[in-house]
């Protein structure tokens, strides 16, 4: 139930809602621990993530905008005989219709409480034990299983990466690709936000309706530092919040059966480098994992520049792990379907599960959280003479730092206090990196709106 609060400048309501699903069957001890976690050091994080969900569909990518619009917003997780209830104070009225919270928004809100509290309860007490590679992967498995995302069905989950700030032609193209995937019975997983994360879900949604598929999955995987800047789009029906960007990236690889990359900015470049850094490792040479880069005809120069940058930094061998398809949504879907068939055969042959990719070796250097301080960014080793997967790992961190400076509150604060991050490396690498970043700026891939002020300096 909800009531209007007339004192706020923005339309807000106070509401009391009752979770369902993974929060409706809890022991008294679990409810007590959940309440303690949400009212302790976790509360501010819970508040920020909940506000992002309640403003789902927002066109802003400023993580502080919603907090400034709704300064009085608060959330409380309270105990009752039949489990928990959630109290919302000065919640955005846009999440309600005639005094009732929109069902999809409520589901995403419950997911926020579930994921943040689950990790606080299950893992924070034994954080030191989770620092080895196997422990981190097991933690990711536990989070995905708790979110009820691990389903023993035939492989059909396509991860779609791409920018939150893309032009209309690129958006419509991504929607067409999603449509072609949906016609072939594939589900969609993205970073959950707007732009290239929403478009393929929207296209697949129409195709699934045509094919009369009623149990479709539109999975959004995010993390606390990014959700406020990229709030979940309305089509997401399964949301999971991973603790950090590294676990988010590993979740995409463990959960998905293939990846399609649409045009994007630094976040998309980070994702490409992360995946290629894994696929170029000797241990993963025989693990099939289809990777397709695609966009409309006008985006061909974008992929040419990405391809040139990857060839320069990682070598021509990197290009054997991906293909580029321009202006052909049906061909993208056919190639992805064929790739997923190979994934299925490999999983059967090696007795690997369909719902979690245990075969992919992900070393600790790709799992440890990278905190983009000015010192850490300046000390990245972006020089020749390194193994390609090692260089890819540091290049990924460089792009991750720029993402933080662009849209994550902590990173934005560091840049405001200490100036832009400085990135050093071999001159030809830095010239190529600078050209790539300048192209992102010129094509308005850094921010959805407003004048972009670079949070970085490439030292050539």
Characterise the protein shown here.
This protein is of the alpha/beta class and 460 residues long. It contains 16 helices and 15 strands. The protein has helices spanning 28-39, 43-54, 65-69, 103-122, 133-146, 168-183, 199-210, 224-227, 245-255, 266-279, 300-314, 329-349, 374-378, 388-407, 409-418, 427-442; strands at residues 2-5, 12-17, 74-80, 83-92, 96-97, 100-101, 157-161, 187-190, 218-222, 238-241, 258-261, 291-295, 323-326, 421-423, 456-458. The chain has a seven-stranded parallel β-sheet, with helices on both faces. A four-stranded antiparallel β-sheet has the order 1-2-4-3. β9 (218-222), α8 and β10 (238-241) form a beta-alpha-beta unit. α2 packs antiparallel against α4 (103-122), α11 runs antiparallel to α16 and α14 packs across α15. The longest helix has 21 residues, at 329-349. It is globular. The protein starts with a strand and ends with a strand. Residues 4-8 have low confidence and may be disordered.
Descriptive keywords:
globular, 15% strand, single chain, four-stranded antiparallel β-sheet, alpha/beta, 460 residues, seven-stranded parallel β-sheet
Low-confidence stretches: 4-8
Question: Which geometry do the CA atoms define?
Answer: globular
Task: Report the average pLDDT across residues.
Answer: 90
Strand adjacency order, main sheet = 10-9-8-7-11-12-13
Radius of gyration: 21 Å
Topology (elements, then pairings):
Elements: E1 2-5, E2 12-17, H1 28-39, H2 43-54, H3 65-69, E3 74-80, E4 83-92, E5 96-97, E6 100-101, H4 103-122, H5 133-146, E7 157-161, H6 168-183, E8 187-190, H7 199-210, E9 218-222, H8 224-227, E10 238-241, H9 245-255, E11 258-261, H10 266-279, E12 291-295, H11 300-314, E13 323-326, H12 329-349, H13 374-378, H14 388-407, H15 409-418, E14 421-423, H16 427-442, E15 456-458
Parallel strand pairs: 7-8, 7-11, 8-9, 9-10, 11-12, 12-13, 14-15
Antiparallel strand pairs: 1-2, 2-4, 3-4, 5-6
């Amino acid at each position: 139930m909800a009531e209007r609060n007339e004192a706020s400048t923005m339309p807000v309501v106070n509401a009391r809602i009752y979770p369902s699903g993974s929060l409706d069957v809890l022991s008294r001890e679990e409810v007590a621990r959940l309440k303690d976690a949400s009212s302790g050091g976790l509360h501010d994080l819970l508040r920020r993530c909940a506000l992002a969900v309640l403003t789902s569909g927002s066109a802003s990518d400023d993580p502080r905008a919603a907090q400034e619009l709704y300064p009085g917003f608060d959330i409380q997780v309270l105990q009752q005989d039949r489990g928990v209830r959630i109290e919302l104070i000065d919640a955005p009225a846009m999440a309600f219709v005639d005094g009732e919270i929109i069902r999809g928004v409520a589901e995403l809100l419950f997911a926020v409480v579930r994921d943040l509290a689950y990790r606080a309860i299950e893992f924070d007490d034994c954080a030191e034990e989770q620092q080895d590679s196997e422990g981190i992967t097991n933690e990711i498995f536990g989070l995905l299983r708790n979110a009820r995302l691990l389903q023993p069905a035939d492989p059909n989950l396509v991860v779609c990466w791409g920018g939150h700030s893309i032009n209309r032609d690129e958006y419509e193209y991504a929607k067409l690709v999603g449509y072609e995937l949906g016609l072939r019975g594939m589900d969609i997983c993205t970073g959950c936000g707007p732009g290239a994360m929403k478009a393929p879900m929207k296209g697949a949604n129409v195709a699934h309706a045509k094919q009369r598929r009623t149990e479709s999955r539109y999975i959004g995987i995010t993390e606390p530092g990014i959700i406020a800047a990229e709030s979940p789009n309305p089509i997401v029906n399964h949301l999971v919040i991973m603790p950090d960007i590294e676990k988010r990236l590993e979740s995409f690889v463990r959960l998905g059966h293939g990846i399609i990359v649409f045009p994007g900015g630094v976040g998309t470049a980070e994702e490409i480098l992360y995946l290629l850094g894994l696929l170029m490792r000797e241990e993963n040479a025989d693990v099939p994992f289809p990777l397709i880069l695609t966009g409309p005809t006008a985006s061909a120069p974008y992929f040419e520049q990405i391809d040139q940058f990857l060839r320069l930094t990682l070598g021509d061998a990197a290009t054997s792990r991906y293909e580029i398809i321009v202006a052909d949504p049906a061909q993208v879907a056919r190639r992805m379907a064929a790739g997923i068939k190979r994934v299925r055969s490999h999983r059967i042959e090696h007795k690997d599960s369909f719902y979690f990719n245990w075969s992919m070796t992900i070393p600790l250097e790709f799992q440890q959280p990278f905190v983009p301080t000015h010192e850490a960014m300046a000390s990245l080793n972006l020089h020749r003479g390194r193994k390609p997967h090692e260089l890819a790992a540091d290049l990924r961190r460089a792009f991750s730092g720029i993402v933080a400076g662009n849209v994550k509150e902590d990173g934005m604060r560091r840049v405001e206090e200490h100036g832009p991050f400085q990135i050093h490396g071999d001159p030809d690498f830095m010239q190529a990196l600078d050209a790539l970043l300048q192209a992102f700026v010129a094509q308005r891939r850094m921010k959805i709106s407003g004048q972009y002020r670079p949070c970085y300096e490439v030292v050539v």
